Amino acid sequence: MKSYADNDKNQQNGKWAEKANDAAKKAEEKLDDMKKEARESAETHNEEKSE
């Protein structure tokens, strides 16, 4: 019975780790998007300044 409980616990931990990895990936993608937007708006701002 103990091994079954341990196995179930390990599966739950595995699912939790997967969810954490997914969340981390999404956060990284969001951060990349924000960096890209910031870069683009900075370029636009610089172009407006130079005109």
The amount of beta strand, in percent, is under 5%
Mean pLDDT, rounded to whole units?
90
Task: Measure the end-to-end span.
Answer: 75 Å
Q: Describe the sheet with the most strands.
A: none
From the alpha-carbon coordinates, what is the Rg to the nearest angstrom?
22 Å
List the uncertain runs.
none
Estimate the helix proportion, in percent.
over 70%
Order of helix and strand elements from N to C terminus: H
The quaternary organization reads as: single chain
Number of helices, counting only DSSP H or I runs of 4 residues or more: 1
Shape annotation: rod-shaped
> What is the number of E strands?
0
Alpha-beta classification: mainly alpha
Would you give an account of this structure?
The protein is an all-alpha fold. It has a domain at about 25-50. The chain has one helix and no strands. The chain has one helix spanning about 1-50. The chain is rod-shaped, with a radius of gyration of 22 Å. The model has no long low-confidence stretch (mean pLDDT about 90).
Fill in the keyword field for this structure.
51 residues; mainly alpha; 0% strand
Question: How are the SSEs placed, and which strands pair?
Answer:
Elements: H1 2-50
How would you summarize what this structure contains?
This protein is mostly helical and 51 residues long.
